[in-house]
Amino acid sequence: MLHFTGLKVTFGSPTVTFLIMPAQPLSASLQTEVDAAFLYKKIAEAEPDTAIARVFEQLAEIENGHAAKMLEHLAKQDSTLRLPLPSWRARALNRIGKIFGYDYIIGVLMDTEKSIAQASVQQKTKSNIPVKGDEGNHVRILQNLLNNRQKVSGEQLSRIEGRHKTVGGNALRAAVLGANDGLVSNLSLVMGVAGATSGQQEILLAGSAGLLAGALSMALGEWISVKSSQELYERQMALEMAELVSNPEGEQKEIALIYIAKGIPEAQAHDMAASLMQNTDEAHALLIKEELGINPEELKSSAWEAAITSFILFAIGAIIPLAPFFWGGGTAAILSSVVFSTLGLFLIGSAITLFTGKSVWYSGMRQVIFGLLAAAVTFGIGSLIGVSIAG
Question: Is the pTM for the entire model greater than 0.70?
Fold first, then answer.
């Protein structure tokens, strides 16, 4: 197995140097870098702010540099090798970005960067190579580029950081997993009832009740989750503001400590804290972010929107195994339900590869196997219950 042992990237001034040691074959890493460069370029093209777009263009250039170096290593083994085109996964993510906005895709990319950084640290530790702190993901590289090469305001930096923390794979994962929950749970319920009775009406009744109950439960749970988080954050933010008003000296010391922890000299940190305390709102915003770890963007989420989305996604998954019983019953409907559900499970497993980068066949078939196993268990239990009742 080939591993890329080191890469020095020189990008203008200052020089950005870091080592990448992925825990995957170099050919797979090459595709990862090509995909990342492609997506960063697409994000830059869609970004209306020129300064922020330039940052993403620079990230794309860095990824292209990685790919070029990896190709150089691989070419020693195969001189006919050329840079691959963006994978289907990258193209699918780009399509999603065009439809739903590239904020989602930024989060997916940052998850990938974090995984690579963690693998780099693990490989260095295993090989007794010093960890110098330059193994960080592209969030850190992004911040360095902003601080040293771009005249980008703090507001713009916060905007980028907020995207990485609050959007991205999470929303899309919720969509995929919501549909998966609906499909697997209702398939298991439908097969359980089908095992106990061959009556079409009984299966339709149970499946429809399972769909509605599950979708309502998901929606209510999502609504409570979002509202509870918002209320908790609002309370913590209100308490922080009260502390700023009642004990400004203590809060100023806390701000100074935050600056010191970031590597700012103590005297300068205290001067900066004193200056910031002249504006209560700015001091409050800093404490919310650094002390409480709260991103105000999270408070903008709509609990109702989350609930309705969860309801719809669960229902879409749950209707798949139930659909054949609207037109018939018996063995033909059961087999049709299994076939439709198998296709649905494979598609959901394939969609998950957008976030994991695993093989489509691996993720799809894994989803199919576990889903059908659950259905087989409930069908068997239903059959035993049906026999005992009949007896």
Answer: no
